[in-house]
Amino acid sequence: MQASRLKNTRRTRRKAGIRKRLYGTADQPRLTVFRSSKHVYAQVIDDSTGKTLASASSVAAKLDNGATVEAAKQIGNKVAAAAKEAGIEAVAFDRNGFRFHGRVKALADAAREGGLSF
């Protein structure tokens, strides 16, 4: 098996284990993070209705280099502001199978500083 496919398979298995325990409700929606090699994406999702309540990404923010820790911090602030605007204060953090360091941690810390609690 190729290294990239094996890496994706492992992340998918970790993701399934995390999602088994996490469920976004109207009171406490799920803040999910996805990082690619070029960009960082964050969404606040209510799983009971299947709707995205707030979102932010380095693509939508038109950041030149969306794959940096600084870009992740900006996206964390933007998603926190969008969630606050939608009336959301508490979320369940879904790291989506990624390790909690680097860009994922920077986004989470910035979202906490922006007023979200998790």
TrEMBL record:
<keyword id="KW-0694">RNA-binding</keyword>
<protein>
    <recommendedName>
        <fullName>Large ribosomal subunit protein uL18</fullName>
    </recommendedName>
</protein>
<dbReference type="InterPro" id="IPR004389">
    <property type="entry name" value="Ribosomal_uL18_bac-type"/>
</dbReference>
<dbReference type="InterPro" id="IPR005484">
    <property type="entry name" value="Ribosomal_uL18_bac/plant/anim"/>
</dbReference>
<dbReference type="Pfam" id="PF00861">
    <property type="entry name" value="Ribosomal_L18p"/>
</dbReference>
<dbReference type="InterPro" id="IPR057268">
    <property type="entry name" value="Ribosomal_L18"/>
</dbReference>
<keyword id="KW-0689">Ribosomal protein</keyword>
<comment type="function">
    <text>This is one of the proteins that bind and probably mediate the attachment of the 5S RNA into the large ribosomal subunit, where it forms part of the central protuberance.</text>
</comment>
<dbReference type="GO" id="GO:0022625">
    <property type="term" value="C:cytosolic large ribosomal subunit"/>
</dbReference>
<keyword id="KW-0699">rRNA-binding</keyword>
<dbReference type="GO" id="GO:0003735">
    <property type="term" value="F:structural constituent of ribosome"/>
</dbReference>
<comment type="subunit">
    <text>Part of the 50S ribosomal subunit; part of the 5S rRNA/L5/L18/L25 subcomplex. Contacts the 5S and 23S rRNAs.</text>
</comment>
<comment type="similarity">
    <text>Belongs to the universal ribosomal protein uL18 family.</text>
</comment>
<dbReference type="GO" id="GO:0006412">
    <property type="term" value="P:translation"/>
</dbReference>
<dbReference type="GO" id="GO:0008097">
    <property type="term" value="F:5S rRNA binding"/>
</dbReference>
<keyword id="KW-0687">Ribonucleoprotein</keyword>
